[in-house]
Amino acid sequence: QVHLVESWGGLVQPGGSLRLSCAASGSILSINVMGWYRQAPGKQRELVAAISSGGSTNYADSVKGRFTISRDNAKNTVSLQMNSLKPEDTAIYFCNAEFRMSYGTLNKWGQGTQVTVSS
Fold first, then answer.
1. pLDDT at 13
2. Considering only CA atoms, which of 8, 18, 7 is closest in space to residue 83?
3. Quick one: pLDDT at residue 88?
4. Sign, Cα dihedral of 97, 79, 86, 115
5. Three-state SS across 54-111?
6. φ, ψ of residue 87 in degrees (nearest 5)
7. SS3 sequence, 11-55?
8. DSSP one-letter code for 8
9. Helix (H) / strand (E) containing 3
10. What is the pLDDT of residue 1?
11. pLDDT single digits (tens) 12-39
């Protein structure tokens, strides 16, 4: 009933930029929190950025000043603008959201998309 669809990542050179988007659909009343996580080879999955329904944001220290998360509540979308990319940003990126349903809350993950930063 609920779907979370991510745009595809890709290959980008160091210092370059990439924008990821995620769209939610289904019988959703609203979305409480939306965010992006990533998992690099040999590392644990970590929170990259999150944004609340009110617009409050939270970023990992490693991406502060370089990444920007935003959301469009009317369209139920969240985006991650990634600038000044570094090789260490290479990872699989996952969209995540906590939905407010008619019966309560539901947490959902996107399928994940590979972002590779290399020259």
1. 98
2. 18
3. 96
4. positive
5. CCCEEECCCCCCCEEEEEECCCCEEEEEECCCCHHHCEEEEEEEEEECCCCEEEEECC
6. -55, -35
7. EECCCCCEEEEEEEECCCCEEEEEEEEEECCCCCCEEEEEEECCC
8. P
9. strand 3-6
10. 81
11. 999 999 999 999 999 899 999 999 999 9
Give pLDDT tens digits for 48-68: 999 999 999 999 999 999 999
What is residue 94's predicted lDDT score, i.e. its pLDDT? Answer: 97
| Length in residues, the chain | 119
Q: What's the rounded Cα separation, in Å, for the pair 21 and 6?
A: 6
Q: Which amino acid is at 36?
A: W
Tokens 């019966």 -> residue: 103
Separation of alpha carbons 73 and 57, rounded Å: 15
User: In b/e form, how buried is each residue of 82-103, taking b as 16+ CB within 10 angstroms?
Assistant: beebeeebbbbbbbbbbbeeee
Radius of gyration of the chain (CA): 14
How far apart CA 72 and CA 43 sit, in angstroms, is 31
Q: Which residues pair with 97 in a beta bridge?
A: 34, 108
